[in-house]
Write a sequence for this structure.
């Protein structure tokens, strides 16, 4: 299941390494990598995954202090990262830029769209995998991959098409059309969820 994407990533990496011209890194401000910011941001991104994994574990109900401690660690990472990025000469993420409405609104929209999309990407294969004796289809991993293939092809085509559409109609129109198409597809999935 993961072999084909892995092979594609390896091939793409080799092609980029061979075809891209050399580009020596250079900085005009003389600042290096923001290592404290890098470590704190990594902790900020990894800790919620640990919280989610532990929250889904069946025996975590008897150990709520572990979840509470991880949430405190997450708050410490976020606070530390924010403080470091505000003082860094060359921050990884410029927090002043994130305060601009056009940036934080697009980040929020991206988050909401990703949550909606990932819920469908998670739930649809689960429906296919559930036994046919219950409410699912009893499909194996290969069958699930074939069922999802048209969606993967459509998603691959949507990127270039949306780029062309953004140049011609503007990004707001493309995002709106994408949301309408996604909502229509999810409603269609809900309406005919008993059929492959």
């Amino acid at each position: 299941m993961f072999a084909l994407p892995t092979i594609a990533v390896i091939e793409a990496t080799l092609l980029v390494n061979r075809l891209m011209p050399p580009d020596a890194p250079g900085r005009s401000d003389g600042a290096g990598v923001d290592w404290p910011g890098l470590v704190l941001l990594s902790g900020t991104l990894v800790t919620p995954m640990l919280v989610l994994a532990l929250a889904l574990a069946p025996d975590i109900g008897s150990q709520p202090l572990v979840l509470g401690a991880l949430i405190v660690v997450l708050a410490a990472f976020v606070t530390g990262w924010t403080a470091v990025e505000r003082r860094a000469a060359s921050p990884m993420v410029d927090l002043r830029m994130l305060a601009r409405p056009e940036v934080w609104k697009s980040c929020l929209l991206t988050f909401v769209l990703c949550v909606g999309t990932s819920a469908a990407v998670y739930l649809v294969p689960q429906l296919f995998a559930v036994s046919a004796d219950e409410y699912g289809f009893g499909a194996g991993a290969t069958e699930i991959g074939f069922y999802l293939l048209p969606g993967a092809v459509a998603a691959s085509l949507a990127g270039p098409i949306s780029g062309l559409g953004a140049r011609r109609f503007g990004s707001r129109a493309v995002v709106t059309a994408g949301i309408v198409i996604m909502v229509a597809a999810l409603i269609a999935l809900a309406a005919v969820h008993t059929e492959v």
Remarks:
- The chain has a mean pLDDT of 85.
- The chain has two domains: 33-97, 100-196.
